[in-house]
Amino acid sequence: MGIPGSGLAKGLAVTLRTMTRKAHTAQYPDVQPELPPRTRGVIGLFEENCTVCMLCARECPDWCIYIDSHKETVPPAAPGGRERSRNVLDRFAIDFALCMYCGICIEVCPFDALFWSPEFEYAEEDIRDLTHERDKLREWMWTVPAPPALDPSAEEPKEIAAARKAADKIAAAEAAQAAQAAQAKDAAEGDGPTGSSGRDGAAS
Asked: Residues within the annotated binding site?
């Protein structure tokens, strides 16, 4: 059997301890909170990277991503080439009334079309307004923080190395063509007066 009044004493002890501590109350919205860098606020869409692969919509556990698209034919890049078809995005929407902010859609996107933004002030009076269409999702991209700087001692990604190698190869080919053109021009300028004097001598 406990001592009478022990519960009250414990409660008063907790009250005294908390009274002496510094308050951590944030005066929101007058004072904005300092959010961690990886805060999951809202999802932004970088439409140019989207290929309508539908991975995000298929993997979403809440089925809150809606995508519509159509196919269009792309003419061949070179004469004699084959036409190809590509998907064109018509609609991309996320229903944040259903979203549970798991981030699976961002992780599975193979083309980096979805990003986390720390913005969280998008409450609505009408629940239907929580379905953000692609124009609204694109606006959130302006609030996406810049990625952290790469470790200088880290190995260069294979994609960047391949792109740099291809760019160097193209630059070398263009430089070789420019050098050949310059040599041909110099040769033409050098042969011009000689040929002219030869013709003049033959005429005389």
From this structure: 50, 53, 56, 60, 99, 102, 105, 109
